[in-house]
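Retro notes - structure team

What went well: the batch runner handled both jobs without manual restarts.
What didn't: labels got mixed up in the shared folder, which is why I'm recording both outputs here explicitly, each with its sequence directly above its tokens.

Job 1
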Amino acid sequence: MKARGSGVVAMRHFVGLLIGLVTTAVLLLGGGWAAATTLGRPLPGAAGLSPQPGGAQTWIALGVMAGLGLLLGLVIAGRVSPLAGFVPSMVLLAWTVIYVLDAGRAMGLLTEVPTFHRELDVAPVGMGVLLNSGIYAMLGVALFLPVLMPSRWAGRSREEDDEYEEEPGEPSYY
């Protein structure tokens, strides 16, 4: 059996770390923006109001939510590195613990400084709602569970490494 180079393993985990950082940013900003955008709509049937047809902004927000769901599914089920799920899970779970211990301090972590795009200025409102409702805790646990599986830390096994090569003079065992 051939030993895998430590450089390949280190590169796999480095790529997983980068994917985890990008996933964290997309989850926080994209999810916060989508939640804040959909919160602006009245609930169907609330106070006797009939449901309003969704505008383009609502459809875009729902598309962002679907894309986030796809991204989270790929990170949870993917075999890149467990760090891809570990980084966002630790951010979400740590923020939830801070919220449980001191809600004012956790909400103080939300930025009030304008972002690089004006549309994302409403993201902190949605992030606060997702934190307050426990959705970040639920997502953090879902992202953390695959980290506990030992098979995620081991690299992919190659078929040629698994095959047993027999010597011509040796008997074969089944």
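Job 2
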Amino acid sequence: MFPSERRWTLLLAGALLVVAGLTLGPAFFPAAHAPTVMRVDLPPPAQVQAAMPEYPTTASVQPLISGRVNLNSASLEQLEALPKVGPSLAARIVAGRPYRSLADLDRVKGVGPSTLQALTPLVTF
């Protein structure tokens, strides 16, 4: 092989590698894309208009709760007075403080959908 033929062969091989790299490069190293931001109006939040429950009182018995119970500051006795809350669940609620929403309360073991539905109008955070 003559020196000029060898030079052209190397040049052709180099050009072939450059073309292959430009062709296959995006497949191996894709370009990062910025996320698209869409402006969509959200529907208004549903308003919960739950009436406050009335607790019966007598001359000798006053209810432990009047109005809403703050889960972050209520005593064990006040928590036990809530429906579907016994001594062990009240202790777990106290151990899981602080609470900011019903989602935080839902993480407590023993609190399920029916308990959340019963406690929603009775508790605050």
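One thing worth noting from job 2: The mean pLDDT is 81.
We'll revisit the folder naming next retro.
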